[in-house]
Automatic annotation (TrEMBL):
It comes from the Bacteria. This is Acyl-ACP desaturase. Keywords: Fatty acid biosynthesis, Fatty acid metabolism, Iron, Lipid biosynthesis, Lipid metabolism, Metal-binding, Oxidoreductase. Fe cation 1 binds at residues 80, 111, 114, 194. GO terms for cellular component: cytosol.
Length: 316
């Protein structure tokens, strides 16, 4: 099988960056804290459900969470459930050898804990309908996962640099919105993992920008302009995401201000002097897109405040 010039370039870049991957892997292992999902679940609140055990069926009044927090937790969990697909995608992009393979396996093991602890919490506290949740899991996983941000190493690394931070923000804000100190404690723990994952990928991309600035800049722009959360194929995702955005858990403003801008600033994107040709063109595209996104975020915020004001007026 012949290797294209692009594939040859990507492979060569990965070889050059493997010492960076090893360094970041070691940093991650030195900072990651061991924790156990069962310690974050209030098992004393649990009781048998209907079915073979003849327990009590679930009903909405058993949930102590708001509709917004419930939907956000469901989206977060169903997103985690597609972990086999993510593992396949990232191992295809990064490979299974050396520091790359060690990182992929470690990342997968840590991400798996997130799904375990969130599902156990939701089940023990009867926060969501377990039948509907399982049906949604089956539907989502049967659909599988295909990376739609490009299949190159650079596109994959750029995507997860933003996605891991977006997930951290979503988990933290979901915990705060839940009104349940136990839920917030659990999601704070999960978010801490996501933050360390983000740092690995962000530092890797920083090194890629030094090694191949123009190609890396193009990948970053492609990813930012086409960014979608990995759970976008969840059944009813649009409705759920609107509810989550209206609650301020994750919206365009947070995506722009708390996810994209901090990472781009860390990479010194708009002050770099090493971009030429396609790289400079990609940076210009990115700047234009960010201006449009900022305007769209402001427009959404204005409309949300107007809706809230109307709702408050009706209540009074």
């Amino acid at each position: 099988m012949s290797v294209t010039p692009e594939e040859k370039f990507q492979l060569s870049l990965m070889v050059d960056l493997e010492p960076v991957a090893e360094r970041e892997l070691n940093r991650h292992l030195s900072m990651a804290k061991e924790w156990f999902p069962h310690q974050y679940v209030p098992w004393g609140e649990g009781r048998d459900f209907d079915g073979p055990l003849g327990g009590e069926p679930w009903s909405l009044e058993q949930s102590k969470l708001s509709a917004e927090a419930r939907e956000s937790l469901i989206v977060n969990l169903l997103t985690e459930d597609n972990l086999p697909g993510y593992h396949n995608a990232i191992s295809t992009a990064f490979g299974r050898d050396g520091a790359w393979g060690t990182w992929v396996n470690r990342w997968t093991a840590e991400e798996n804990r997130h799904g375990i602890v969130i599902r156990d919490y939701l089940t023990a506290t009867r926060a969501v309908d377990p039948v509907a949740l399982e049906r949604a899991r089956m539907h989502h996983m049967e659909a599988g996962y295909d990376a739609d941000h490009g299949d190159s190493f650079l596109h994959g690394a750029a995507y997860v640099s933003f996605q891991e931070l977006a997930t951290r923000v979503s988990h933290r804000n979901t915990g705060r919105a839940s009104g349940d100190p136990l839920c917030e404690q659990m999601l704070t723990r999960v978010a801490a993992d996501e933050n360390l994952h983000m740092i690995f990928y962000r530092n890797l991309m920083d090194a890629a920008l030094e090694a191949a600035p123009n190609e890396t800049m193009r990948a970053i722009t492609d990813v930012v302009k086409g960014f979608q959360m990995p759970g976008h194929s969840i059944d009813g995702f649009l409705r759920k995401s609107v509810l989550i955005a209206n609650a301020g858990i994750y919206d365009l403003r947070l995506h722009h201000d708390d996810v994209l801008i901090p990472v781009l600033r860390k990479w010194n994107i708009f002050d770099r002097t090493d971009l030429t040709g396609e790289g400079e063109k990609a940076r210009e595209e990115l700047g234009e897109f960010l201006e449009q996104l900022d305007a769209a975020a402001t427009k959404f915020e204005t409309r949300r405040e107007e809706r809230r004001a109307r709702q408050a007026a009706r209540r009074s």
